């Protein structure tokens, strides 16, 4: 490896190029424009690029594979090209450098980390010797909305791999993620009976009143000591203040740290029924990201990364996250390490930024993982 292989300026310029192509999930044309640039970066490398056509309003996914080591389980890197930032965000949050921070929409979550993994792969390809394991890098287009069109691809590639490295951003000063809560989403539909609220209220059956009962039931499931959160985040109902509401609706988010918690609570939520005669309650939904629980294989992968970081001169700590990522889909069956992207702050905000000082250490760590995993 050349002495300037991890020079910061060219890496930051590469990240800038990716950030300047805005790629909100709901704009597959923009995501595909970024995918074109990413794919072009592999043309001079010993790697193949497979493009999986997007569908259901989502952009394409890219699967890049090293020319070596593809016959046996190897290393899978998971990244996403989509961001939550709507088109035009680059005007409000332009790419700029201020001290140790570089700003831009999606720079921290997660174009910075995705680019570091790509750059580390370029350096591996430039070495005289190939590492023992093949390297596959999957770039998906829909992670920010729960990976509905990429989940099957992620799970299939994850089951073929021996290790999964995820380039989501680091947390709390550079910590990697070794566990995440599972995520479930539900919709509540309530149908009552309308009536005039002033002259014939007794003829009505209020869907909104029933929704209040449902919300109380859901709120009672919160248990912070066990790490369980249930949040009714969206409610709608009724038509006019003088009409007993016929219809009401809610969207619910649940987070659980273990599958045992999910097995306990998902059926309870789906089984919620009406307390009021003449009112129907229907709940639909499911666990859409299983919990990422630290396994012995995952713990060993983290221990190895921690040793490599110490050799590189920094301490690598781990953390548990309440948020989900694509690592939730691979961790139940493959050794997975998340949060290997850049350090920074402000994911999903108008001040999103990466810390430039994290670029070198994080890129070198990915490079050493590619070199040493067996």
Automatic annotation (TrEMBL):
Q: MF terms per GO, please? A: hydrolase activity; metal ion binding
Enumerate the cofactors the protein uses: Zn(2+)
Respond yes or no to whether keyword Metal-binding is given for this record. yes
Domain of life of the organism in this record?
A: Bacteria
In the UniProt record, does the keyword Zinc occur? Answer: yes
Positions of the catalytic residues: 82, 143
- Locate the Peptidase M20 dimerisation domain: which residues? 178-269
PROSITE patterns referenced in this protein's UniProt entry, alphabetically: ARGE_DAPE_CPG2_1
Keyword line: Hydrolase, Metal-binding, Zinc
Protein name listed in UniProt: M20 family peptidase
């Amino acid at each position: 490896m050349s002495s300037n292989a991890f020079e910061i300026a060219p890496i930051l310029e590469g990240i800038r190029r990716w950030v300047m192509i805005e790629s909100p999930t709901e704009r597959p044309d923009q995501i595909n424009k970024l995918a074109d640039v990413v794919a072009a970066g592999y043309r001079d490398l010993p790697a193949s690029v497979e493009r999986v056509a997007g569908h259901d309003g989502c952009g394409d996914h890219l699967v890049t594979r090293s020319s070596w080591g593809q016959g046996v389980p190897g290393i899978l890197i998971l990244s996403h090209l989509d961001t939550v930032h709507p088109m035009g965000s680059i005007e409000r949050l332009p790419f700029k450098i201020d001290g140790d921070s570089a700003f831009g929409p999606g720079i921290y979550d997660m174009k910075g980390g995705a680019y570091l993994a790509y750059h580390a792969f370029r350096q591996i390809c430039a070495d005289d010797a190939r590492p023992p394991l093949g390297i596959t890098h999957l770039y998906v287009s829909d992670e920010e909305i729960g990976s509905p069109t990429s989940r099957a691809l992620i799970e299939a590639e994850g089951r073929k791999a021996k290790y999964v490295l995820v380039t989501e951003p680091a947390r709390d000063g550079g910590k990697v993620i070794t566990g995440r809560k599972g995520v479930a989403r539900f919709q509540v539909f309530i149908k009552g009976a309308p009536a005039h609220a002033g002259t014939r209220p007794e003829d009505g059956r209020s869907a909104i009143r029933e929704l209040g009962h449902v919300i109380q039931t859901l709120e009672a499931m919160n248990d912070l000591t066990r790490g369980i959160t249930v949040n009714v985040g969206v409610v709608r109902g009724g038509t006019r203040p003088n009409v007993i509401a016929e219809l009401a609706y809610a969207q619910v988010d649940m987070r659980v740290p273990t599958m045992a918690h999910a097995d306990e609570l998902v059926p309870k939520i789906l089984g919620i029924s009406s307390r009021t005669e003449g009112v129907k309650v229907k709940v639909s939904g499911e666990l859409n990201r299983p919990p990422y629980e630290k396994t012995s294989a995952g713990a060993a992968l983290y221990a190895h990364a921690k040793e490599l970081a110490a050799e590189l001169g920094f301490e690598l700590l781990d953390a548990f996250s309440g948020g989900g990522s694509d690592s939730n889909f691979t961790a139940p069956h493959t050794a997975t390490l998340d949060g290997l992207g850049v350090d920074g702050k402000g994911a999903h905000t108008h001040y999103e930024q990466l810390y430039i000082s994290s670029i070198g250490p994080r890129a070198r760590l990915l490079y050493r993982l590619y070199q040493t995993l067996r």
